[in-house]
Design goal:
The complex is a heterodimer of chains A (about 450) and B (about 475). Chain A contains 14 helices and 11 strands. With about 450 residues, chain A is an alpha/beta fold. An 11-stranded mixed beta sheet of chain A has the order 1-3-2-4-6-5-10-11-9-7-8. Chain B has 15 helices and 16 strands. Classes of the chains: A alpha/beta (about 450), B alpha+beta (about 475). At the A-B interface, helix 8 of A face loops of B.
């Protein structure tokens, strides 16, 4: 099913690599070496994979990189973990992330920031920064991440690997600690398109434990990996190439990628997604609203951190004050505010209406094209600390990835170039609902005809 | 003094009789070891997701249809956000702006007239856990067995105008729910709970008065008592020229009064929003029609039928049809012993007292319709007297033996043998010379005394007709 080339690592060699470079990268925040070795002995051909720390693995710490979940070990496996175990994968611990997936830089983790393997003074992207970094740094061949507003695609782009957010409902969310339930989706991060397709094969499918998972047929995604994009119509939305706010080098790489695909026989079409400009504001109403409710359960009662206090309410207050970081608190406050009586109609309800318009933009566009081509991020990886005190600037780094979550459509980011300074650039392809196949096909053809994915960081 | 009108609206919470909880597979059985019937979903563990129990939903629709409600086109759930340690997720999955059903009606009989109480909404939600406090130790415990159990909230319009009518509404609601077999409506186990909104206004006034919400009423009697108390309290306040505060008040059963719990200012903002973990869905019209057709005959209809088919009184019909178990028993007995009036008398008399004393429903006893029919047949054929039957009945209840068998074992069969009776009567006459003489002297009452004495000696088994004849003959009276 997969070539040796695409799975170069055994669990043992991964462990060696992790012990050699993880201290520098801080990609993996927990690993039980003995358990890995034992599993590797039982499953010598098992594929090593690391898991974002917001996906429940039975009896292993699952903390969302938050102090409030310190020592929390779920008594159950997420559906995707069960599928990976059944398929013989070897779990290589937990990957770092922004606390509760709130962030685009992997800096808000209580375990400290993860570093970009291409330049360790820079962020790897986020929130699945640990997953992306572990793959890019060669610690593991693949990883699971979650994408609520770009949290797989953005770090994949900034770390120079492949990352896919499947259609909402394609992969079960059971066992994914929710950030924003209507936007969250688990997906693969890998060194190449084939591995990503193979991993999606394993984790996707209807799950009766998740009412939002879709009862639709799951094709073998590796079957769509043909080096042929002739007659495929690729839409290029003008709103994703703004005068301001798009880095010149990124823009150049994306336009060149467009030409490469055209050269391969794809048909390019100019399209418009008119409500794009409202996506970020819409997202920052809906996502924090859901998050404020999802995070209400972390109160010290049953599990995780508990700060002693004289009475229950003080205990809850002290626990949540000590347990959540600044960004988590910011989003809980935002969400609580926008759901409050008197504001609900003006914010949440309005945002839901805008969301429908954004979704309709895409459905309309897909009447004329098969996939949509955009930059994944407006700029390459920024410096650690550069935006940590600039939440709005940070939020804007997801400007091109957020719309796909609001619309529920699939998206993939693949390496498409490097800056002069050697930082990776990602190309984003967005697809029709449940048409990951065409995304894989175009991504694979691009990859087969370019060398970007072959470049490795010097670390 | 001005007259006041009482205005009451009721909010009933009913546990649905599904085997598993509303959004997970855990058992709903009552009285299990604390926290033994829990899983990641009902504990609200991180990452877990709810999945709607289809049966709970069907039960809800069934109930809504029986209450003549309209069914919502799109079924959606919402989150009600509030912090409480019995609520594992710190939000409750409920329904807010689109209850699954609305605009229904429950009929009640009130002082010989019928009234229609409108049902405003019916919605499905999950129950919370149970807190237990150990005041001396200063600790509290939480049991999540109840967390996530399917709860149906049935809200009436403020159409009720007396505590008695409130009680009648609940009695009828309970009867309907039990007919549908969707809830056991056991107030003691908390499977039926009720809150009330009550206000008063000068008679003839259009605007509603300021209301109080009453909680903690754990029986129908408590609902009646609490509402009576609260109505009087509010009327007294108004009569004294004072204002009523909008507040939540708790019924204190022991002290027989309501106590202010929280005022309107403390009302929580629940920050309702659509539950993103459950996808809204539409209900197939055919499915609704199918459920409609499968509804059993409901208490009101059955009552009417009993009056016309069996010529029982309105009152008897109402009581007989209050519980499906009883009406089923009644009709099953008629099949083998066709005397509805006699059956009704026994069911509403001796059998009802036995059931009350044991606090069981008739279906859960060893008494079967065949037993009652057999016993009534024995009375009819004078094998036993009605008095003996009253002794036989509890035995059937206890051990499930047939009345015939009990009569045989205990030798309770009537003494119809003239020879046997004659010798006993001779003895009684000998022992009661005075009464004998009194009778002969024309005091007819003396006969009753002598009959009583014979009954005493025969432990009530003497056939009264034969006894009377022999006695009169022997005494030589007319």
């Amino acid at each position: 099913m997969h070539s040796k080339k695409s799975i170069p690592n055994t669990a043992k060699s991964c462990l060696d690599r992790i012990s050699a470079i993880n201290e520098k990268l801080n990609a993996i925040i927990y690993i039980d070496t003995d358990k890995v070795l034992k599993n590797a002995q039982e499953k010598p051909s098992g594929i090593p994979i690391t898991i974002k720390d917001n996906i429940c693995v039975k009896d292993e710490p699952t903390t969302c990189a938050s102090r409030i979940l310190e020592n929390f070990k779920p008594p159950y496996d997420a559906t995707v973990i069960k599928k990976l175990k059944d398929a013989g994968f070897i779990l290589m611990g937990k990957a770092n992330m922004d606390e509760f997936a709130f962030g685009s830089s992997c800096e808000t983790s209580c375990y400290g920031p993860t570093r970009n393997p291409w330049d360790t003074t820079r962020i790897p992207g986020g929130s699945s920064g640990g997953s992306a970094c572990a793959v890019a740094g060669g610690e593991v061949p693949m990883a699971l991440g979650s994408d609520t507003g770009g949290s797989i695609r953005q770090p994949a782009a900034l770390s120079g690997i492949v990352g896919m957010k499947p259609t909402y409902g394609r992969v079960s969310r059971y066992g994914l600690i929710a950030f924003a339930s209507s936007l969250d989706q688990i997906g693969p991060l890998a060194g190449n398109v084939r591995d990503a397709a193979m991993l999606l094969n394993v984790i996707s499918g209807y799950d009766e434990l998740d009412s939002t998972s879709a009862d639709v047929a799951c094709p073998d995604f590796t079957q769509s990996l043909e080096n042929n994009v002739r007659k495929i119509k690729i839409g290029v939305p003008k709103e994703y190439f703004p005068e301001k706010g798009l880095d010149g080098e990124v823009k150049k790489a994306i336009l060149e990628s467009k030409d490469i695909l055209q050269g391969l026989g794809a048909e390019l079409i100019d399209i418009s997604l008119p409500h794009t400009e409202y996506a970020v504001s819409c997202y920052y109403i809906i996502a924090p609203a859901e998050a404020s409710s999802n995070l209400a359960r972390f109160d010290g009662d049953q599990y995780g951190l508990r700060k002693d206090a004289k009475n229950m309410i003080d205990m809850h207050l002290k626990t949540r004050t000590a347990g959540f970081g600044d960004e988590a608190k910011r989003r809980i406050l935002l969400g609580t505010y926008s759901l409050s009586s008197g504001y609900y109609e003006a914010y949440y309800l309005k945002a839901m209406k805008v969301r429908t318009k954004i979704k309709n933009d895409f459905l309309e566009a897909f009447k004329t094209c098969d996939v949509i081509l955009t930059p994944t991020t407006p700029a390459p990886a920024f410096k650690i600390g550069e935006k940590i005190n600039d939440p709005l600037g940070m939020y804007l780094s997801d400007i091109f990835t957020i719309p796909a979550n609001l619309a529920g459509i699939p998206g993939i980011s693949i390496p498409c170039g490097f800056t002069k300074g050697g930082l990776p650039i990602g190309l984003q392809l967005l697809g029709k609902p449940f048409d990951e196949e065409t995304l894989f096909r175009v991504a694979y053809a691009f990859e087969q005809n370019t060398e970007f994915h072959k470049r490795k960081p010097n670390i | 003094m001005k007259n006041y009108e009482v205005v009451i609206g009721l909010e009933a919470h009913v546990h649905l009789l599904t085997e598993s909880k509303a959004f997970c597979g855990c058992s709903t059985k009552f009285g299990l070891e604390p926290n033994s019937s829990t899983c990641p979903v009902c504990l609200g563990l991180p990452g877990s997701l709810p999945v709607l129990n289809e049966k709970a939903f069907l039960y809800a629709i069934k109930t809504a249809l029986a209450l003549h409600c309209k069914i919502q086109n799109l079924i959606k759930f919402d989150r009600k956000n509030y912090y409480y340690p019995d609520l594992p997720k710190n939000y409750q999955i409920s329904q807010y702006d689109m209850p699954l059903a609305y605009d229904g009606v429950i009929e009640i009989e009130s002082q010989e007239s019928k009234k229609k109480i409108r049902v405003k909404r019916v919605h499905l939600e999950e129950d919370a856990g149970k807190l237990m406090h150990e005041a001396e130790k200063g600790v509290s415990y939480v049991d999540f067995n109840r967390a996530g159990v399917a709860l149906l909230e049935i809200v009436s319009e403020p159409d009720i105008h007396s505590p008695e009518d409130a009680s009648a509404y609940l009695v009828n609601l309970k009867a309907i729910l039990k007919y549908l077999k969707v809830s056991d409506c056991n107030m003691e186990e908390g499977s039926l709970r009720c809150d009330a909104n009550i206000s008063v206004r000068p008679e003839g006034a259009k605007a509603l008065g300021v209301k109080a919400e009453l909680k903690n009423m754990n029986s129908f009697k408590a609902v009646r008592d609490a509402l009576s108390y609260e109505a009087k309290r509010q009327i007294d306040l108004l009569a004294a020229g004072e204002k009523i505060q909008q507040e939540t008040r708790l019924w204190n059963e022991a002290r027989g009064l309501t106590i202010a719990m929280r005022s309107k200012e403390d009302t929580q903002d629940y920050r309702y929003f659509p539950e993103p973990d459950l996808v809204p869905f539409t209900v197939d019209k055919n499915k609704i029609d199918q459920i409609m057709r499968s509804l059993p005959e409901l208490p009101q209809a059955k009552k009417k039928r009993f009056i016309s088919d069996y010529s029982v009184s309105e009152y008897d019909a109402r009581v007989l049809t209050r519980e499906a178990d009883v009406s089923d028993f009644f009709e099953a007995t008629i099949k083998t012993y066709n005397n509805p009036k006699e059956i009704a008398n026994w069911l509403l008399g001796d059998i009802a007292s036995l059931l009350n004393a044991r606090k069981v429903s008739i279906a859960k006893t060893k008494l079967k319709p065949g037993h009652l029919a057999e016993m009534l047949e024995m009375i009819h054929s004078e094998e036993i007297s009605g008095k003996i039957a009253k002794e036989v009945l509890p035995e059937v209840f206890e051990n499930g033996l047939s009345p015939k068998e009990i009569v045989r074992q205990k030798g309770l069969k009537q003494i119809k043998d003239s020879g046997e009776l004659t010798s006993i009567i001779e003895l009684v006459i000998k022992e009661n010379e005075k009464s004998t003489n009194d009778y002969k002297a024309g005091k007819k009452n003396a006969l009753m005394f002598l009959v009583g004495q014979v009954m005493k000696k025969t432990k009530g088994k003497a056939n009264p007709k034969i006894l009377n004849n022999i006695l009169k003959n022997m005494l030589g009276g007319k």
